[in-house]
Amino acid sequence: MVGWGTWDPRIERPSMADAYNHYIDGEWVDGEGTETFESENPATGETLGEFRKGTPADVDRAVAAADEAFEEWRELSRIDRAEYLWDVYHELRERTDELGEIVTKECGKEISEGKADVVEAAHMVEWAAGDARHPKGDIVPSEIPAKDAYMRRKPRGVTGCITPWNFPVAIPYWHMAIALVEGNTVVFKPAEQTPWCAQVIAEMFEDAGIPDGVFNMVQGYGDAGNAIVENDDVDTVIFTGSAEVGHLIQDKLGGVAGKRAACEMGGKNGIVITEEADLDIAVHSAVMSSFKTTGQRCVSSERLIVHSDVYDEFKERFVEVAESVSVGDPLDENTFMGPLIEEEHHEKVTRNNEQAREEGVNVLVDRTELDAEEIPDGHEDGYWVGPFVYEADAHADLTCTHEEVFGPHVALMEYDGDIEEAVEIQNDTEYGLAGAIISEDYRQINYYRDRAEIGLAYGNLPCIGAEVQLPFGGVKKSGNGYPSAREAIEAVTDRTAWTLNNSKEIEMAQGLSADIKTDD
Ligand code: UN1
Q: With a 6 A CB cut-off, is 167 part of the ligand 1 pocket?
């Protein structure tokens, strides 16, 4: 192994001598494939570890194990299933600092974000495991006194979880914690950029002693993810990631009887700053929303829609921060922005910044290429980029103000009408994930709440930082699913409307006659 330091006590496990592998049916297995891939620290270019590349055959084996394990797992009570999750919860809490550092090393988020990722995972597991002891379903009235009517839920079977790199610990648990408590079994395909985090997740389930086949993990690339989508024995696919892949999954599974896909995709999220805004809150919210995680959250904001009465002052203050916000070593707690995730993405963000220029926008801050002295020693091979801020016509049909970049690429868009105009500008994208309004006027806030076409809306806050007990998801091109908290239960269970007759007679509702009439 390369570059693992002293972290993993299991390094001695014989099968892990040269590469980390898949977890299938309660065992660490090499899988069918002979290829491996490396995890890279995006801040340094250093190789963090080597992992086996899963093949469709490995996925099929994992699905078969999950399918086999389902019958016994569903027979346990929800409370017994949740006990395994509580073990995972305690491990997440005890190892938050250590795991947060792994998150930061592997995906480049600054260290408080790395730890917050682990805390968010713990919160999700706590929510799901705690929910196991809460009432489930509804008792429903019947017209007939002798009938008991209930809404009940049943697990659907095998859940395939395909997760992104930017929340490499939290999002897998969004997908899996509720699926497992509800009685489903899981096949987890993590992002290829963050296999180390996935390795730790699998070890946590192993440590918790989860029964063989209930949780399975196959490392790998898109072909492994695709094998999950194509496998007939996978009942539900939960996906968080790009709109491109999410729509392929939706198209593939949408019309297939018995299949369900819950997808949460990207956004081109706006923040409306009205003439009634407190500008301290406005600037702070915009900076957090646009630059935290180096703009690489699906909820990050790339559009700031600002009223002309406050436009100049907001612009001056926002630009001042964008010019000076610290970009650098994500393990240093004085850093605000770490690197982008990888070379390919660095090229995309650079190209999108250039394309915005070509579309004729007025560039205010361009830190696409950092000065050599801004890059810390030993980090020359990182994928660095700083803020790119520009002014664009709020009503023009520009690519840069409508397509997601997934980087610190932000448009200031001025409007001079009322809140209706601001919301119209915000809604003028195909996406509908997150957004915020900054205003001291509750009528403007309420209008925004009711009319902004988004799944996650904030007032006087950044549009990032959702808590797990709220549903998380979007509308329009941003998704069809809410893979967290209460609403995730919809994705991983089927409902049964159950009616039991307690009488010896059959009596029907709606006055329907139950007499059997004969000619005799
Ligand atoms: C994402 O960017 O894909 O609301 C998820 C937030 C986090 C989750 C972001 N709780 O910013």
A: yes
